[in-house]
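Morning!

This is the sequence you dropped in the shared folder:
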Amino acid sequence: MIVALALGLALGIQAFLIKPYQIPSGSMEPTLDIGQRVLVNRFIYHFSSPEIGDIVVFHPPKGADNDQCGSAKPPGSSCPTETPERSDQNFIKRIVAGPGDTLSVKHGHPVVNGVVKSNEPYINPCPTCTLPKQITIPPGHYFMMGDNRGSSDDSRIWGPVPQSWFIGKAFATYWPPKRVGFL
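The structure's back. C-alpha cells below.
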C-alpha cells in the first residue's frame, strides 16, 4: 500500500507539478550543456505570464525539425508565423520577445521594440546572426531563441510559439553535480 501511494504521488508530481528533462543538444550552451538535467515547473504559467528571459520547455511547431515556417518567410526576416500544428517533441529555449513586440535580430541579439538586448552575458555570441526585417509577435505567442545563437534552430526559423504549447519553466539543474543550481 505504501509503495503504491509513493508511486502514485511521484507520478502525480511529474504529471502536474515538476518534471525532469534532459538537454538533448548544444543550442542552450553555455547556459545548459548537452546531457545536463533540469527541473521544469509545469504549473507556474497557470498563475503568471511568461517573461522575457524565462527558459521554457515547450512543443515547437510541427515541422520545426525540418526548418518549416508556417507562412512565406521574407528574405532577411525571421519566420512571422508558426505552422498550425504542434510537434510531439520537446524543445528548450529562452523567451526573447512576447505578444505585440516587434523583433529583428542584430549580430545574434534580439532587437525588441527598437531596443537591442545586448546585455546577455549568458549567450554564445554570433556576429553573423542578423535578421534585419522586423516581425510583430502575434497575441498569445512568444519568440524563442537558444543561447548558442549560431547553433540553435529556433523561432528565427519556425516562428513564434503559442503559450498554449508551453510545458513549463525550467528553474533548476540537478545533474551533473558540479552544475546543480537555480537558473
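Headline: The chain is about 10% helix and 30% strand.

More detail when I'm at my desk.
O.
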